[in-house]
Amino acid sequence: xxxxxxxxxxxxxxxxxxxxxxxxxxxxxxxxxxxxxxxxxxxxxxxxxxxxxxxxxxxxxxxxxxxxxxxxxxxxxxxxxxxxxxxxxxxxxxxxxxxxxxxxxxxxxxxxxxxxxxxxxxxxxxxxxxxxxxxxxxxxxxxxxxxxxxxxxxxxxxxxxxxxxxxxxxxxxxxxxxxxxxxxxxxxxxxxxxxxxxxxxxxxxxxxxxxxxxxxxxxxxxxxxxxxxxxxxxxxxxxxxx
Length: 242
Known about the structure:
Elements: H1 2-7, E1 19-21, H2 22-32, H3 34-48, E2 52-65, E3 71-79, H4 85-100, H5 104-107, H6 111-119, E4 127-129, H7 130-151, H8 153-164, H9 179-198, H10 202-212, H11 222-225, H12 229-241
Helix pairs in contact: 2-6, 2-9, 3-9, 4-7, 7-8, 7-9, 7-10
């Protein structure tokens, strides 16, 4: 219990090659899956669930017609508006979770890492490197940032204008069409579901692709099986070559 409390989901926080417990990572992904599901419902309801409501008692004939000889009426129409304060705070927390996960010291600030590590403490650990997971969390942070801009275009404009010290963006304009965040939350839901249920990590696949393209030089042997004899042999050969 003391070792778990000290190391969280790390094999050795002070090691040169940081390894994290894949079992705890998958538990945490399942916990955080609630966030994109909640946002998916919010976005769908905001985009497709809000309709104009006409008060029949306010319909009046203007005694005028348009160019197609249609009679023009006036009426009081209302449409439900949404307050995205809760969603914005949820996104801010999710962004916080993605960022603090990337580094050993800041990981201790994450409530979900503590909970996931506790739940995985008596299960057989599966050690995987931290570096490829950072790509997954970077993808998540990017998606979260774009969704936050959709919910808060005015605050985003104020932020950019404040950084630039000049009026670059209008504070009354929506900068993202609805299908962008709607698509992103469903993609994020799919990625997190595959991580928690199937153990398939989009960030790890991206890392592997970058290695194959030669953009990254460090291959993730641990993503296969870092403690297998084959992986140990490959590492020894790599050290001799260098």
